Amino acid sequence: xxxxxxxxxxxxxxxxxxxxxxxxxxxxxxxxxxxxxxxxxxxxxxxxxxxxxxxxxxxxxxxxxxxxxxxxxxxxxxxxxxxxxxxxxxxxxxxxxxxxxxxxxxxxxxxxxxxxxxxxxxxxxxxxxxxxxxxxxxxxxxxxxxxxxxxxxxxxxxxxxxxxxxxxxxxxxxxxxxxxxxxxxxxxxxxxxxxxxxxxxxxxxxxxxxxxxxxxxxxxxxxxxxxxxxxxxxxxxxxxxxxxxxxxxxxxxxxxxxx
Length: 259
Prior knowledge:
two-stranded antiparallel ribbon, single chain, 259 residues, 5 helices, alpha+beta, 25% helix
């Protein structure tokens, strides 16, 4: 036990040193650095004929994200959007020592805490995005289990259920990765996503990518919505509206998790 605790403490110290020595310029292209430093965020919704990742931070997982794009590899109506945020740790918690690579990993492994997540309609009205959210035992199970908080983050696989405001019952396969001061999580739908009885997105055709990078006194947060929807009249506009508010909801939810 003492050896394990010592190892954990040493790894934590190593990650902290790595974060302190990391700079924004190490992870994002020069054209994004100044804008992030002045405005704090950048977003882009890609045209349907130009589904090429542009803003993913340069890290151990950037090539994985690029090579596994759903919108460019599957037939259907593509949608891809990306969001970058530079967040001072002082905006996340009064005690910034509580905001580190390990606590960020815990945030995105806490599936049940997504229950009650709020989003804002394009008209400005606030509503509940996920009326229910919890971890389940497997892709085929509805059995509620504790959030997957035990054990290392790197290589963790889990499943989550959400009662979505728009799509009803949704279920995701969640994969987590961690290296040095970088945490990567990817959520992939494993059941059809339906709207008003119409299956708009088939299984494994929607992925949310999340990258968190500890920069010492700030966090670089990257979100991407990667979708191939069924070819239904007006579906791209609907998916764009839906995914845009969801990415904003994840960001705003993240901002209060360390309070």
